[in-house]
Automatic annotation (TrEMBL):
One of its GO terms (cellular component) is plasma membrane. The keyword Membrane applies. It is found in: Cell membrane. Belongs to the TVP38/TMEM64 family. Residues 40-152 form the VTT domain. InterPro entries: TMEM64, VTT_dom. The keyword Membrane applies. Keywords: Cell membrane, Membrane, Transmembrane, Transmembrane helix. Its main location: membrane. This is TVP38/TMEM64 family membrane protein. It is a multi-pass membrane protein. The chain crosses the membrane at residues 20-48, 60-82, 137-159, 171-188. It comes from Paenibacillus anaericanus.
Length: 199
């Protein structure tokens, strides 16, 4: 974790006297900056939410912040930053070419997968989605579900650090059920697409 950013964030919280969900007034702008430039890990904000709000509310706040930031970055790239993105990230996109093809082919499911498994930085996922064939409403849905999955998983991994002795089964069991539902939905959707392509 970037200690400098953590100290700055803690300093801002102390100066602004934000507590409870008002902390989002600070973390949403920081998440958007992180989403565009990727200068510090989103995990910094997630850990801050957990520290200030506790596990359940902290994860919920992180989901809101991640979803808003992901949508803002997507829209910025689609309407304003496409040229800048192509110049700055062109080489990285070449490296992630197969994932760009997956987003073009599987749409929301590729975004959900990439949000859950940290193979590609979140801001690059938003940028790649913006230049794909995906519709805005499809990305909005994938962004919400993908961020939920990502933050839930990170919560499972980080909660014992912030709250030693926490009962992780309350996070793990619902998460496994959530992943199972997603997997079933993907299989059903994939079969429908295969049948449509065959006919």
């Amino acid at each position: 974790m970037n200690e400098w950013i953590q100290h700055i964030t803690e300093w801002l919280v102390e100066i602004t006297q934000l507590d409870g969900f008002s902390i989002l007034l600070l973390t949403i702008p920081l998440a958007i900056i992180q989403g565009v430039f990727g200068i510090f890990p989103f995990a910094t904000l997630l850990m801050l939410h957990l520290s200030v709000l506790g596990i359940a509310k902290g994860l919920f706040a992180s989901w809101i912040v991640g979803t808003v930031a992901g949508m803002v970055v997507y829209l910025l790239c689609e309407y304003f930053l496409a040229d800048w993105f192509n110049r700055k990230w062109f080489k990285k996109i070449k490296k992630y070419h197969k994932w760009q093809e997956s987003i073009d082919r599987y749409g929301v499911w590729a975004v959900i997968f990439l949000r859950t498994i940290p193979i590609i930085p979140n801001n690059v996922i938003s940028f790649m989605s913006a230049i794909s064939k995906m519709k805005n409403i499809s990305y909005a849905w994938a962004n919400m579900v993908g961020n939920l999955s990502s933050i839930w998983l990170f919560g499972i991994l980080s909660a014992p650090i912030v709250f030693p002795g926490v009962n992780l089964s309350k996070l793990i069991v619902p998460y496994v059920v959530f992943l199972f539902i997603l997997m079933v939905a993907f299989i059903i959707r994939h079969r429908k697409m295969t049948k449509k392509s065959a006919s």
